[in-house]
Amino acid sequence: MLGLLLLQVLASCLWLGHSEVVNSFESCPQFFYDGIPPDGALNPNNPARICQRFNNSYHYATLYDRVRRIPVYSAYKYQPGDDEKPPRKWMVEPQLIDRKSLPDMKFDWVLTNENIFTLDQIKESQAIPDDYNRLKDLDRGHLCPSGHQFSKERMMATFTLTNAVPQDKTLNNDKWNKYEYKTMPQKTQGCNTTYVITGAVHGNTYVSNNRVNRPSHIWSAACCLGDKEPKDAWGAIAENDRNRVEVVSLEELEKRLSDLYNGKVTLFKNACSQK
Ligand SMILES: *[C@@H]1O[C@H](CO)[C@@H](O)[C@H](O)[C@H]1NC(C)=O
Ligand SMILES: *[C@@H]1O[C@H](CO)[C@@H](O)[C@H](O)[C@H]1NC(C)=O
Question: Can you tell me the mean pLDDT for 49-65?
Fold first, then answer.
């Protein structure tokens, strides 16, 4: 009897260890500088912490707002490469529907075809591809962009809607794109490791029948390690209805976010903030 109980406890521990939607980011601290996620004020009322898993491994981490059906931020290591770009096919997160469900992100049509979930069940906890299909001036804007990842597998893992927000189409294709692919390579020269946190400040309006929040701002922060110690840090922020990105100090970004989120926001541990 005791043996059976132990077995059950062990089994549930193993199961939790594999789970992707977690209480803390303990299965994927490697995506945060010094293993420490940003603090308090960013947390929405009903958050989900997702260690983004695809093809049996973790690729980045996301704090997801279940009520607004958009991510708050995705945290990752900046590791661009020249692997071939994957097809733009977007997935969803089974564990937002049921914590005990499949640990890897999946295509919604796979979940429905295999009778794992109905589309209504999926829609309840998150955005689905259909929410974005009819948007005209808004793109599915990646928080962790595929082009900051080195392998095809890791690039594919960025195509989950838990890593996307409705982003102004012009901004996404022009100035934000330039920040991601021109400014970042310049600023990360000489960095051994660069930790990035990219987020969206929730806005006052919704799209797709009031299902998905349209963020007011998109922001990004970077902490660059020289050898192993922080060497440089910076931030960027854009209003989500105009084609302009401001590159600012990390301190300035944290100040602006603290105003926008109504509470103190610290993105990296002090050592990086003081750069
Ligand atoms: C998934 O992982 C396997 C085993 O590591 C690898 O051979 C395969 O290429 C991966 N699939 C993708 C799409 O990267
Ligand atoms: C770069 O970072 C890696 C991983 O953190 C570390 O093991 C290595 O010592 C660093 N190398 C240099 C040259 O900074």
Answer: 97
